[in-house]
Specification:
The complex is a heterodimer of chains A (113) and B (113). Chain A is built from no helices and eleven strands. Chain A is an all-beta fold and 113 residues long. In chain A, the strands form two sheets. In chain A, strands 2, 4, 5, 6, 9, 10 and 11 form a seven-stranded mixed β-sheet that branches. In chain A, strands 1-3-8-7 form a four-stranded antiparallel β-sheet, with no helix packed on it. Chain B is mainly beta. Chain B is built from no helices and eleven strands. Classes of the chains: A mainly beta (113), B mainly beta (113).
Chain lengths: 113, 113
């Protein structure tokens, strides 16, 4: 069964450093998302990406964040100048339509120290 | 605004009893409503979903009901087992942008043996 894969599974970084979280969505999917889950809280929408551009972003997704789909398979989330409060589990998801299941990756746990 | 409310936040039931979790959503045009089960440290896993053109869907011990007029939907788990213990999230697809999910705040279900 196809699945969304994310790397790394766990990333520890110093405050102020840049991190790149990587995702490989399911190959025929058209819509790509990043979500964030702070420990013990709900899953929060960050950004959606369609047709090679950002189609929507939340208030959380400020200038510190950026996304790319550099080669048609990978989908990356870059966080510049990380802050302690960026510590969370980051999930990538993809789907093939608008009223269909979104498939989630296993997540990257980001710890900013 | 875009919002999904979920109740209760915690739920304890005896093994074999039923559990019901309720959600309401704000976007009357939402057309897809998944339920996810999340075990500690793992990705959300889809357990059942419903589209807006049906009122009820059942899969073995799990069922979901949808009331479009009232904009609420519910998860029903019958004959609960200890392995049902987890955090359950409802979500609704919001029709602005690229149909992102907005998640509810989660329900921690404990099934007591």
């Amino acid at each position: 069964e196809p699945e969304v894969t994310q790397t790394p599974s766990h990333q520890v970084t110093q405050m102020g450093q840049e991190v790149i979280l990587r995702c490989v969505p399911i190959s025929n999917h058209l819509y790509f998302y990043w979500y964030r889950q702070i420990l013990g809280q709900k899953v929060e929408f960050l950004v959606s990406f369609y047709n090679n551009e950002i189609s929507e972003k939340s208030e959380i997704f400020d200038d510190q964040f950026s996304v790319e789909r550099p080669d048609g398979s990978n989908f990356t989330l870059k966080i510049r100048s990380t802050k302690l409060e960026d510590s969370a589990m980051y999930f990538c998801a993809s789907r093939d339509g608008t009223a269909t299941e979104a498939f989630f990756g296993q997540g990257t746990r980001l710890t900013v120290v | 605004g875009e919002n999904v409310e979920q109740h209760p936040s915690t739920l304890s039931v005896q093994e074999g009893d039923s559990a019901v979790i309720k959600c309401t959503y704000s976007d009357s045009a939402s057309n897809y409503f998944p339920w996810y089960k999340q075990e500690l440290g793992k990705r959300p896993q889809l357990i059942i979903d419903i589209r807006s053109n049906v009122g009820e869907k059942k899969d073995q011990r799990i069922a979901v009901t949808l009331n479009k007029t009232a904009k609420h939907f519910s998860l029903h788990i019958t004959e609960t087992q200890p392995e049902d213990s987890a955090v359950y999230f409802c979500a609704a697809t919001f029709t602005s942008g690229t149909y992102k999910y907005i998640f509810g705040t989660g329900t921690r279900l404990k099934v007591l043996a």
